[in-house]
Amino acid sequence: MDRRCYPDWRIQKARIGFHDLTFVVDGRANYYIDGNKFAVEAGDLVYVPGGSVREAHTFKESPMHAYPFNFFWAEPHNHIRLPFGVVTKKLITKEILAYIREFNHVWMNKQPFYMIHARALFELILHRLLHGMHRQTIMHMDPRIKKLTAIIEEHYAEDLSFNDFAEQFNLHPVYLGKLFKKNTGSTYKEYLQRIRVNNAEHMLMAGGVTVTEAAESCGFQDLSYFSKVFKEAKGYPPSAVKKH
């Protein structure tokens, strides 16, 4: 949707059930999310997760022009939040704007199969945003942690010793642990388990392996522990993967 705000445009205060992802291309506005004020301007990405209390207004001297997307995740996943702050800068590229304008054209013309076309474009927009955020994170990541995460993603099925990594980088394990958490947002154990669980899930979805085989192939030697960790991460046991 192409939103060209009138000078007195505003969003009344209310709790929203959907997610609001708005691309601001011109003008200014103030958003109030859960009681906190956020000033937005051209080039900003605004993200308001479902369940938030949202309110907004623009300015008469500089009305906002934006492309908002209001959407729900398929149940039972609507509680999942995108990894953006309320306002994120320097993520909207010319490529993303081109996809947004193409989406708007498809949505307004409503030709046959337009829903499939529009959904594919929206998912492509999300992909480019997440890729851009990941690239920014990698650029600012400590090179030692970048190397360590690459090793984990390549050798997650092996017996990886955190203390060995600390010795390899000539760092105290406690300091390396803090550095890892600062750069990734997760502890080493959480990161390793997430990689292992996600790969086990992919194997089970593809079929041809048992839960035990998937667990062992992804570095879990204790089946009970694997089932516990998997359910905590996914919300359902590994035996129920194909039902989700």
From TrEMBL:
Residues 146-244 form the HTH araC/xylS-type domain. Transmembrane segments: none annotated. The keyword Transcription regulation applies. It comes from the Bacteria. Pfam families: HTH_18. Keywords: DNA-binding, Transcription, Transcription regulation. One of its GO terms (molecular function) is sequence-specific DNA binding. This is AraC family transcriptional regulator.
